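pasting for ref. prot 1 ->
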Amino acid sequence: MSRIVAVSKDSDCIRILCELAGVKHELWHNHTTVDAPETVYYVRSIPGIHISYPELSMWQLIVKKGIPPMRFARYCCQELKEHGGEGRFIVTGVRKSESVKRAARELLEIQGSKKSRWAFIHDNDETKIELYNCINKHSPILNPIIDWYDDDVWDFLRYYDCKSNPLYQCGFKRIGCIGCPMAQGKRGQVWEFARYPKYKQLYIRAFDRMIQKYEESGRKYAKWTDGKSVFDWWMSEKSADVELDGQINLWDLETD
């Protein structure tokens, strides 16, 4: 039985394709604790969907890691989104046109192997045996709409009368965690926090606790004095500049 990761318009396409093909499947959503309310309500409206909750919330992870979630420190994705499905056949809505990184993705991949493989129907027997042995040991991932573009996705959904997540009708291009610098960029972060001010306060409170924990260990941040100062830095272009400069002392830490 296949395991489908569901939340976005692309996942809706996969869900419909599996229903049309008569494929036995389960729908899963990894609740990140930073999902928009509209996303939460939409996910709950999907019949038969399973919702997986993380061991630690985003707010707890921030305190544990000691830094805000960044493009180069995506601990939140690993802990909150990229888990589950071990030993299952996973079907996703990943598409090459979404990003440069995803352009390197393949139709069939093997999770847990050092190098993913793409299965061709004209592979020789020896290659097929090698791939099948790999599938038996690791979780295979199938990306059926890997070559689709946005227009293909929306044409398909309109044909099957699926409006998908209502956030798309509110101007969202991608669905992700509120405040994620990867999903919407800096302008998107500002726009999201204006739309969801309570989440801004939750981040600031988490940054406050992060600083408190660090200072209790006998150390202190050189420039961050409270949660608000961390939030302002996180939202500024300085946080992106650090990534571009390749500096490894981005935390600006001092030891007493």
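and prot 2 ->
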Amino acid sequence: MSGERLQNLFMACSATLALVYMIGLFVLSSIPGPAQPGDSLLGRLVAQTPVSIQKLMHVLLYGGLAWLWFWTLEPLKNEPAIRWLLAFLLTAGYGAFNEWYQLHVPGRFGSCNDILLNSIGAIIGLLMAAWLT
């Protein structure tokens, strides 16, 4: 297999992983706020998670997403500014979209503070990814 084909395969696989991760974040964002009888275990766990832990999870989860996008955009390593910017915009933009979406989920709400936490997580994830590569 040629180097270019291998690089394209890597990018396709890592992009798929990032998109699956985003779907997971969307599923978590779709869980209604207060626990209701008959909720799944995941729904009950999310509803019972203290707010401080939820805020920490914003930073950690969006840091992970930024790292995945940084990894996916590895073919742009010779264009570091574009790679960083794209990874940040994909992550922070998705975080803002997810907060908007939560405005339409019963018992959930979107907030500017959470958008900020998602963006901080993205920056931390990018710094960690750059440091580890």
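The chain is about 75% helix and 0% strand.
The chain has one domain: 3-132.
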